[in-house]
Design brief:
The longest helix is centred in the middle third of the chain and has 26 residues. α1 runs antiparallel to α2. By secondary structure, the protein is an all-alpha fold. It has a domain of about 80 residues.
């Protein structure tokens, strides 16, 4: 048992890469701000924006994870998500990924609870 308990924390290649890039961008922007170097601040913020794009692209390539817990066999951060090719259900990133993913990951119709009038009630 790990220090965090028996849970899926979602450590993935996409998550670690995006976090590292965002950290570098924030550190660079902060150092440039302290040095009063305006182009450096914008460069650091550009790296932060690139971190979001890289994370999204890695998620679409299968190096992220779907929403919710995964089976324990897929908890290792180096495990590739086989279901990412068709898109994850209820995943905004997959729907933005293009028409093929949008159709595959579109939320399905929800079954409505029967109303009392439909059941023959008053």
């Amino acid at each position: 048992m790990s220090a965090h308990g028996d849970v899926d924390l979602g450590h993935t290649v996409a998550g670690w890469t995006g976090t590292a890039l965002a950290l570098l961008g924030c550190a660079g922007a902060g150092a440039a701000f302290c040095a009063a170097w305006t182009p450096g601040v914008w460069l650091g913020l550009g790296v932060v924006a690139a971190a979001g794009m890289v994370t999204w692209l890695l998620h679409l390539a299968g190096w992220g994870k779907p929403s919710g817990p995964r089976p324990p066999s897929q908890w290792d951060w180096r495990v590739r998500d086989a279901g990412a090719h068709g898109g994850h259900p209820d995943c905004l990133g997959c729907r933005i990924g293009g028409p093929r993913r949008a159709v595959a990951s579109a939320p399905g119709p929800r079954s409505a609870a029967p109303s009392p009038a439909a059941e023959g009630g008053a």
